[in-house]
Amino acid sequence: MKANRQLGLTLSDRNLLSAGQLQEANDRWLEWVSGGERGASLLRVLTQSLKFLREEDVLRHAMEHEGAGLVDLREFDVPDEFRRLPDPGACWATWTVPFDKLDGFTCLASAYVLSPVAKAHWEAQIQGPVLWFGTTLDGVAEHLGRLGTLAR
After folding, report:
1. How far apart (Å, rounded) are the C-alpha atoms in residues 130 and 81?
2. How far apart are CA 40 and CA 60, in angstroms?
3. Are the C-beta atoms of 118 and 7 separated by less than 8 Å?
């Protein structure tokens, strides 16, 4: 819940979303969550249901203003050490997955790279430095599906 709320606040603070749009999206998202909607995500509400944003614009913003890279997880062969996730529930809650190691850095792909809560959670969990990469909601969902985690 916190990762979704913080993402919404960040999008609003950075003028990617108006306060009214955020409120409408939060209301819709809470309906989805209370109704048990699988894959309920504020970003999905914003980009696919209400169409207030395009996911590519959010990723572009993360790249330009956060220094995040971009990765398409559908094209990525997952190393053995990342085939068993530390906490699949946290992956779904934060729309984030560890996917590689590069020169001592753990690479994390996230559709929620703009959520301070998601970033803080993973940076506290990972031993050592982290490289952040933006990716799509569908990319994270497909990646988790390939690893055999249950859909949220």
Report:
1. 16
2. 23
3. yes
> Is residue 128 a contact partner of residue 66, using CB atoms and an 8 Å limit?
no
Which residues lie below 8 Å from residue 78, measured CB to CB, with a gap of 6+?
99, 143, 146, 147
pLDDT for the residue numbered 151: 46
How many residues make up the chain in this entry? 152
* CA atoms within 13 A of residue 84's CA, in its CB half-sphere: 1
Q: Given the structure tokens 């560890």, which residue do they identify?
A: 98
Residue 64's Cβ-side half-sphere holds a number of Cα atoms within 13 Å equal to 7
pLDDT, tens digit, 9 for 90 and up, residues 28-79: 999 999 988 767 899 999 999 999 999 999 999 999 999 999 999 988 877 7
Distance CA 76, CA 38 (A): 25
Q: Whole-angstrom Cα distance, residue 111 to residue 149?
A: 17
